[in-house]
Amino acid sequence: MTKVLTDAVKEDKKTTELLVKNGLVFTGDGFQEMTIRIVDDKIAELIEGEAGPILETKENMIDASGCLVVPGFIDAHVHFNDPGRTEWEGIETGSRAAAMGGTTTIFDMPLNCSPSTINLENLLNKKEYLTSLSHIDYALWGGMTTTNLPNRQELAQMSEGVIAWKSFMSESGIDDFQHLSPEDLKQAMQAAKEHEKILALHAEWEQDIVKLSAINKEHPWRNERSAYLASRPISAEEKAVSYALELAAKYGTALHFVHISSPKVIGLIEEAKKSGVNVTVETCPHYLIFDEEDFLREGAILKCAPPLRPRKEVEGLWECIESGMIDTIGSDHSPCLYSMKETNSIWDAWGGIQGVQFTWLTMLDEALKRKIPLKQILPLGTSNVADRFRIAGRKGRISTGLDADLVFISLDETTVASKESFGFRNVYSPYEGRVFSTRVKKTMLRGKVIYDDQNGVTNEKMGVCL
């Protein structure tokens, strides 16, 4: 009886077929006019020139004329704060904003939700809570902290359900997500290696930050914004990265540095790569367009850690991108209530930037201005991320057999970042007022249009946990 019912369900399920025509499709090496044939939720065929004998109707064809068609972007670094701090963002609004910017997959960090994802119970509860809430696909990071590090058996269980591990080498700002001491980091490296999982690090040297923060708070008449910058120098980032690279080389751990802000530090990572260390590096759009002068002028809305750097560092990061030394771009979308930015002291303001909606508008806009080939930029948010985090069998490229996650981008239309256009919950962002030279026309997730610039984001929430 069970087999008969199963066969009946299979017969009732109709195969859907869709053609995406007339766009310039990103092949990895460049752009080519071709037809993408989608069957159900997968890319079934890439057809150069005319689609031939395939039956084409108004209902099964999407015209991508005038657009670049690129893989859905993968943002490996967001804080959507669900469950527990939905008033800061929530996956429903965070994924909406992401879809509007062409992102079809995110990896949600293990902190800023409450409780943090640092034990098996919290991980399972978070997975259950997020079901049917997201507009886009997602994976979850697991947190490795000084609190849970002794429980190696539970970490091994958690490793089956997380995309990778995340740890802090300095205070995280979240009480239940404790940072790792230098000795703890040795154990974390070994645990991640045992699980065959990547360990991602927020790399700033805690002892230096504590000392420099105390010194810079001693003089209340000093410009607080300048004092904050001085409390987290590049040298603290450099020291932490150097130490972590030594351990990764010793233990054979796969390492991923998040939000690196200085070309000097990226140079250290590049040297380690060449010596055989299994390491990759991410930077963020805010380190590529804003600088410390913007922070000094605008204040808490641009507060982050590591902080924004001088303009020469910004330009140096672009040189690193051009030379292929940066592997991925992540938004590090870290939202909060606006009241948490409106504090009397910069030291008390929440450190985090709302930007997931504008990551790839920013990157494409800057690449075009700087005459950097898009084939050099696009992998930083597509194939490079998929390859590093082992989801290349589903995501990251426009290729047969992969999920039909596509973004249609017009180079002939602009996007204005206005409050009215924001998709995230709390309508403020340092990107407000910027005019981008490109426009996301449509975003497709697994063969379905989930956003277009005329009708917005669909009500259907079809995102699944990878």
Q: Helix and strand layout, with pairings?
A:
Blueprint: H1 2-12, E1 17-21, E2 24-26, E3 31-39, E4 42-48, E5 61-63, E6 67-71, E7 73-78, H2 91-100, E8 103-108, H3 120-130, E9 137-140, E10 142-143, H4 152-159, E11 165-168, H5 182-195, E12 199-202, H6 206-217, H7 224-231, H8 234-251, E13 255-257, H9 263-274, E14 279-283, H10 285-289, H11 292-298, H12 311-322, E15 328-329, H13 359-370, H14 374-377, H15 383-388, E16 406-410, E17 415-416, E18 435-436, E19 439-445, E20 448-452, E21 456-457
Parallel strand pairs: 1-5, 2-6, 7-8, 8-9, 10-11, 11-12, 12-13, 13-14, 14-15
Antiparallel strand pairs: 1-3, 2-3, 3-4, 6-16, 16-19, 17-18, 19-20, 20-21
Helix pairs in contact: 5-8, 6-7, 8-9, 9-12
Strand content: 15-25%
Low-confidence stretches: 1-11
Largest sheet: 10 strands, mixed
Cα gyration radius (Å): 22 Å
Separate helix tally: 15
The computed structural class is alpha/beta
> Outline, from the CA principal axes?
globular
Helix content: 25-40%
The end-to-end distance, rounded to whole angstroms, is 32 Å
In total, the number of strands is 21
The average pLDDT score comes to 95
Question: Mind explaining what this structure looks like?
Answer:
The chain is of the alpha/beta class. The protein is built from 15 helices and 21 strands. The strands form 4 sheets. Strands 1, 2, 3, 4, 5, 6, 16, 19, 20 and 21 form a 10-stranded mixed sheet that branches. A 6-stranded parallel sheet has the order 10-11-12-13-14-15. A 3-stranded parallel sheet has the order 7-8-9, covered by helices on one side. α8 (234-251) packs parallel to α9. The longest helix is centred in the middle third of the chain and has 18 residues, at 234-251. The chain is globular. It starts with a helix and ends in a 9-residue tail after the last strand. The model is unreliable at 1-11 (pLDDT under 50).
